[in-house]
Design brief:
By secondary structure, the chain is α+β, with helices and mostly antiparallel strands. The chain has 10 helices and 15 strands. The strands form 6 sheets. It has a 4-stranded mixed sheet with strand order 10-11-15-14. A 3-stranded mixed sheet has the order 1-9-8. The chain is elongated and about 110 Å long. InterPro entries: DnaJ, DnaJ_C, DnaJ_domain, DnaJ_domain_CS, HSP40/DnaJ_pept-bd, HSP_DnaJ_Cys-rich_dom, HSP_DnaJ_Cys-rich_dom_sf, J_dom_sf.
């Protein structure tokens, strides 16, 4: 994206946040908009698709602190129409330096992209570049921005690990030139003016200035035959499916990083990374405490009093669990090694909480037997409230 476009677009407005919004606020705003505007959720809606692209473009700049700083500085610099005219500055109308030397603002921007000889490169290195003659380090295309997305998994898939496909629409290496920016069968050549550094130096009075090379737009190379697909940028917006391997035991809210799967860098520069935030749906049977799985097991009063062996569910089928005689309601029994897989090997435990299920309807025979039991219990001297509440 050119620096000129940076001035004309309001990325904060696109994301619905204020210019002083925190990085966390920007992240939250983008996630919500991306989820609502994603093409998969709005098939055939061209207006929503364009809005999705604008939101993605805004996030690519504002989510990167370095790009955001450059964007803010550029907009502030030109908010009033240009630099102050009386201090050797230049104006957006292209009127030039006050000393009489003309300087076209269009040449400054040059239609280049951020990090490719535009305003940010000029001021970022104005006083910090090396001397003339190609000794200065070139202004190379910057690494692509990191990209964030989300996915939601079932509880059991998250615990056991799963591979999921994600459909992404974002800048990716051009499939025609494979990111070089040059038409297939040709290659970029080193810029003869700056010897591949991307920087040229000049003297103005007592000062020496380093600035992006006009011939190569600060990239250090010249493309004689630009790729017809990407027009020499080496990137294009593509919809692609990326396979993400989610490791076993991942927790709700955790992120998976896929190196090099983010936004493509300009003209073959390295791509950014893709960060996938994983959300986990609750399970109707299992819960989780760290590396342990939890489950509440309904049992009868008789199973607790007399003891029993019952079947309990695990992630890999059912196992038998022995309930000792006299087990209290609410006691937690442990089944070792049947919990969440651990990264270093092994697994947590399954924690089974026994909970008495009270029958709602008793037939005459069962009710009569229960009353006989209560009479026998009372005759034995058992008082369930003995010592309770000062009794």
């Amino acid at each position: 994206m050119s620096q000129r476009e940076w001035i004309e677009k309001d990325f904060y407005k696109d994301l619905g946040v204020s210019p002083d919004a925190s990085q966390d606020d920007i992240k939250k705003a983008y996630r919500k908009l991306a989820r609502d505007l994603h093409p998969d959720a709005n098939p055939g809606d061209s207006t929503t698709e364009e809005r999705f692209k604008a939101v993605s473009e805004a996030n690519a700049v504002l989510s990167d602190p370095a790009k955001r700083k450059e964007y803010d500085e550029t907009r502030r610099m030109f908010a009033s129409g240009g630099f102050p005219g009386g201090v050797g500055g230049f104006q957006t109308g292209g009127s030039g330096f006050s000393g009489g030397t003309t300087f076209d603002l269009g040449d400054l921007f040059g239609g280049g992209t951020a990090g490719d000889g535009g305003l940010g490169d000029l001021f970022g290195g104005l006083f910090n570049r090396g001397a003339a003659g190609g000794g200065a380090q070139g202004s190379r295309p910057r690494r692509g921005s990191d990209v964030e997305t989300e996915t939601t998994l079932d509880f059991r898939d998250a615990v056991k690990g799963v591979t999921v496909p994600l459909r992404m629409t974002n800048p990716a290496p051009c499939t025609t030139c494979h990111g070089s920016g040059a038409e297939p069968g040709t290659s970029p050549r080193m810029c003869p003016r700056c010897n591949g550094s991307g920087i040229v130096s000049r003297n103005q009075g007592a000062f020496g200035f380093s600035e992006p090379c006009d011939d190569c737009r600060g990239t250090g190379s010249i493309i004689d035959s630009p790729c017809h697909t990407c027009r020499g940028n080496g990137i294009q917006n593509r919809t692609r499916t990326i396979t993400v391997r989610v490791p076993a035991g991942i927790k709700d809210g955790a992120r998976v990083r896929l190196a090099g799967k983010g936004e493509a860098g300009l003209r073959g520069a390295p791509s950014g990374d893709l960060f996938v935030t994983v959300h986990v749906r609750p399970d109707r049977v299992f819960g989780r405490e760290g590396d342990d799985l939890t489950v509440v097991l309904p049992v009868s009063y008789g199973e607790l009093v007399l003891g029993s062996t019952v079947s309990v569910p695990t992630l890999d089928g059912r196992v038998g669990l022995k309930i000792p005689a006299g087990t209290a309601d609410g006691r937690i029994l442990r089944v070792r090694g049947r919990g969440v897989p651990k990264r270093g090997g092994g697994a947590g435990d399954l924690l089974v909480t026994v909970k008495v299920a009270i029958p709602q309807n008793l037939d005459d025979k069962t009710g009569e037997a229960l009353r006989a039991y209560l009479d026998a219990e009372q005759a034995s001297g058992f008082d369930p409230r003995e010592g309770w509440a000062g009794a």
